[in-house]
Amino acid sequence: MRPDTPRDPLAGPDSGPESPYPIRLSGPVIKGFGRGSKENTVRSVEIHILPHLSLQSSPSASPLSSTPTTPDPTSSPGDNSASKPPHTRHHFHHFPDFYGTPLNLLILGYIRPEYDYVSLEALVEDIRVDCEVAKRSLARRKYICFIQEGGDVDDEGTKEARKWLRTF
């Protein structure tokens, strides 16, 4: 059950991602159970990940932003009772279905563990807070450099990560 305490408004240190981040995930978009947008009104995208990888809820970047300066989504790996656990990415923009499309994700930090919720409404509210935490976190100088070019933190590592992120 989720603790009854206020949520942190940011994830990760202001100094930027710390080991083991950034983590790269890549794979085709898979069909889930349709619960994301139908049951809890939170649109999501799923890709398969390694079964032993445990990231919980994380701020992540992807090339699906409507503009290159828009910090994008939060993501949460989970077991949906399929043969392999998917990685679910909650996105802030609305797109038509695009199953099978290759997707690169760059996980830049950790927001919170998974919880059991007393109601669907409590789950949806926490996912919405996750999205806001991710937006604020990714807007910081040492994180946004993974999404947009320029700035004094645009070193070779971030340039290479940004290039990979946009490669399909």
Automatic annotation (TrEMBL):
Q: Where is the composition biased (Low complexity)?
A: 56-77
Q: Which SMART domains match?
A: Flavokinase (SM00904)
Q: State the reactions this protein catalyses.
A: riboflavin + ATP = FMN + ADP + H(+)
Q: Which GO terms describe its biological process?
A: FMN biosynthetic process; riboflavin biosynthetic process
What is the superkingdom listed in this entry's lineage? Answer: Eukaryota
Location of region: Disordered: 1-37, 56-89
GO CC annotation, single: mitochondrion
Annotated Riboflavin kinase domain residues: 18-139
Gene Ontology MF, one: ATP binding
Top class in the EC scheme: transferase
Question: Which InterPro entries does the entry mention?
Answer: Riboflavin_kinase, Riboflavin_kinase_bac/euk, Riboflavin_kinase_dom_sf
Task: Report if keyword Lyase is assigned.
Answer: no
Q: In which pathway does it act?
A: Cofactor biosynthesis; FMN biosynthesis; FMN from riboflavin (ATP route): step 1/1
Pfam entry (one): Flavokinase
- Keywords of this entry: ATP-binding, Flavoprotein, FMN, Kinase, Nucleotide-binding, Transferase
What family is this?
Belongs to the flavokinase family.
PANTHER family hit by this protein: RIBOFLAVIN KINASE (PTHR22749:SF6), RIBOFLAVIN KINASE/FMN ADENYLYLTRANSFERASE (PTHR22749)
Please describe what this protein does. Catalyzes the phosphorylation of riboflavin (vitamin B2) to form flavin mononucleotide (FMN) coenzyme.
What is the name of this protein?
Riboflavin kinase
